[in-house]
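User: Predict the complex with S-adenosylmethionine.
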Amino acid sequence: MDKFILDACCGNRQFWLDKSHPNTLYVDIRNEGPNLSKFRPNLKVRPDKVMDFRALDLKDKSFRLVVFDPPQLFLGEKSELRIKYGSLNKETWQSDLKQGFDECWRVLEDYGVLIFKWSESQIKTKDVLELFSQQPLFGHPSGSKSKTKWFTFMKIPSCQKQEMK
Ligand SMILES: C[S@@+](CC[C@H](N)C(=O)[O-])C[C@H]1O[C@@H](n2cnc3c(N)ncnc32)[C@H](O)[C@@H]1O
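Assistant: Here is the predicted structure with S-adenosylmethionine placed in the model:
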């Protein structure tokens, strides 16, 4: 089965409706669980491949859709949320996110779509988008009071881009 969709940090695959979509390659930096959390015994992070989104072992332009939902919070070692979502590193978060975005972009084919999710509870969306080499076409909060936003990028080849006047 062709894998033309990449989830670059799949975690527990919580937002997937089909958690084993046959055309999707699920990757994460860890392979853990179940029994990771005493509160959520079924929580598990079982990627198809263990991989670091900062250095994806994948060919250039090999996916049509990439979803990038990295850790978005600085969390303590024992935090339950950390078990579920991982944590940003205080020293390296900016370069981690930039490298992750660059890698997702590299493996995306021309005209491919990248979905980026960000919760601005601790870091403003603007400060994260500034790290990226590309800007989204549009983005939307997932609820009027929610701090989580979903952004859509498209890899439009340079020959299709108009000169800025
Ligand atoms: C916000 S969670 C993803 C949640 C997921 N979208 C879901 O629906 O359940 C972020 C994930 O990024 C993973 N992660 C953190 N650093 C990573 C890295 N350098 N490379 C790949 N995955 C990473 C964490 O292990 C964690 O599972």
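The first helix runs from residue 80 to 85.
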